[in-house]
Design brief:
Elements (H helix, E strand, L loop, with lengths): L12 H12 L4 E5 L4 E11 L2 E11 L8 E7 L2 E9 L8 H12 L3 E5 L2 H9 L3
Parallel strand pairs: 5-6
Antiparallel strand pairs: 1-4, 2-3, 4-5
């Protein structure tokens, strides 16, 4: 069984995201990790530990800026409620774009919020925040 670190130790956001997925993406809730930003695709010409060369290459726009780290749904009876969770470490700050995305989801009837722990994510899923 996985143990949560003591509250006074910072948790890396990637670990928090994985812990939330492990704890809450089952049963009536399904969550998926979403990446935002820009990536590049092409044929790999050269790969070393510090270098990757693609040719021809082209940019791929991932999710829009501000989208939450975890998206999915929670099913209640015959209705699925859109769910968005922004995982943040103890001292990490949210961007205005992330706050705007959370606001849009909430105004549309979904459940969204910032989770600094697995317990926070559970409260978002249950609609307690």
């Amino acid at each position: 069984m996985k143990m949560n670190p003591p509250k006074d130790l910072p948790v890396h956001e990637a670990q928090l995201t994985n812990d939330i997925l492990s704890a809450h993406s089952h049963g009536h809730t399904r969550l998926m990790r979403i990446n935002a930003g820009m990536a590049y695709q092409g044929k790999v010409i050269e790969r070393t530990p510090g270098r990757l060369i693609l040719a021809p290459w082209y940019p791929i726009r991932l999710a829009v800026e501000g989208v939450s780290d975890l998206l999915g749904w929670t099913q209640f009876h015959d209705v699925a409620i859109f769910t968005a969770i922004e995982a943040k470490g103890a001292h990490a700050r949210t961007t205005p774009e992330q706050l705007a995305f959370i606001d849009v989801v909430r105004r549309a009837g979904g459940r969204a919020g910032i989770a600094r722990s697995v317990e926070d994510a559970g409260a978002i899923i249950r609609g307690e925040v």
